[in-house]
Write a structure and sequence with these properties.
There is one protein chain. This protein is an alpha/beta fold and about 450 residues long. The protein has 16 helices and eleven strands. The strands form two sheets. The chain has a seven-stranded parallel sheet, sandwiched between helices. The protein is globular. Bound molecules: nicotinamide-adenine-dinucleotide (NAD). The site of nicotinamide-adenine-dinucleotide has 35 residues, from α1, β2, α12 and α15. Nicotinamide-adenine-dinucleotide binds near residues 121, 172, 248 and 279.
Length: about 450
Amino acid sequence: MKKPPSTIRPHQGKLAVLLPGMGAVATTFVAGAMLARRGLAKPIGSLTQMGTIRLGKRSEGRTPRIQEFVPLAPLDDLVFGGWDIFPENMLEAARHANVLEAKHLDPIADELAKVVPMKGAFYPEYVKRLHGTHVKQAKNKAELVEQLRQDIRDFIRDQGADRAVAVWCGSTEVYLEPTAVHQSVKSFEKGLLENDPAISSSQLYAWACIKERVPYANGAPNLSVDFPAVWELARELRVPLAGKDFKTGQTLMKTILAPGLKARQLGLAGWFSTNILGNRDGEVLDDPDNFKTKEVSKLGVIETILQPEKNPDLYGNIFHKVRIEYYPPRGDAKEGWDNLDIFGWLGYPMQIKVDFLCRDSILAAPIVLDLALLMDLAARADFRGTQEWLSFYFKSPMHAPEVYPEHDLFIQSMKLKNTLRWMKGESLITHLGNEYYD
Ligand SMILES: NC(=O)c1ccc[n+]([C@@H]2O[C@H](COP(=O)([O-])OP(=O)(O)OC[C@H]3O[C@@H](n4cnc5c(N)ncnc54)[C@H](O)[C@@H]3O)[C@@H](O)[C@H]2O)c1
């Protein structure tokens, strides 16, 4: 194993948190961070703010808070900015999203209203349901990247920030697969100049951020930082990347339940998942091309956890289906139903039903915060490229081409915490002591 970094550069000054896409998730995150730093609400669901980490042997009794153990930027030092294709400031956008109540928006209304989106880089063919009015003009995609880079530099300067980190909170784009243009830095830069149609709007933000050495986490399933050209650029410029698609409602439940079934060697015949949601994300996902991107992101989870090829008797014939239905009356308060057909001893069938009345953005907001802080920490520890230890936060975790992604929430959690231990030169927790052999 490699040696841990000898030093993690300390946090200093202000950290700019840049959010491409200032809709329901982004506004819920920013409002929550503003409330939490004033002591007006608790950042529940955030590992960096609420979580602890055990160090050494259990007998040592060392369990600090994660934020005391690793040098994260404190909430007080965060400044928020970003882009959207609509001009509303964050207060207006939060009211429009209708996630947070007036009792939460009123105390921070002035501060929130000051966060005004920069004009977005937007080609409507990737998100057909939205008709953005607050968009940049340029002669080609290369020029748009340059404009975004200038925005980043201006924002850091105007806010007096020390550095920045970006978390994509924009819409899900139509399904795209990597093409020849995505294979190297050279081919991608040529594609930018030639307006290659395989380069979507979200890829422009990712490219601009990496060029500015801004760590980039992708909260949507978009093809933004998951192709060879971007890995090459990130390695060369020493920038951390993470993605993709925040793991929140139904997939969070899947990655909690499936490892349990597997651990107890219970069989699975089928898993049917359906959702109703009525926010703007739901409207975008109502388009079949955009839904396809989400579907691919959601479908990989069960097979990767259950490994049917290793256990065909239990998992060799699973029927897995995922649906999302746009249903405006529910707004952001999604309802996700799951039906699991499982079987036990001698093959006797049983069923599990899950009805999760969740709030999408309430589950996503702490993930945005943790990713911003941990990606910034990764950059200060000189980590670069895909940060697999942050798989914990994603539905479709990015991974090295030669390995499969890790979906099991408990393994992901172990991996994340062991990475923090390793970063600080603490021993990794394996649960193997010498009590059995002495
Ligand atoms: N909420 C969750 O639980 C959850 C979970 C996983 C992933 N996500 C993903 O997170 C993203 C945000 O979700 P949301 O509920 O906030 O959606 P939202 O529709 O409320 O917000 C997305 C915002 O992105 C903007 N946008 C679209 N294209 C843009 C561009 N090119 N440049 C700048 N802005 C652009 C839209 O105008 C909109 O304001 C979606 O892609 C969603 O699929 C959300």
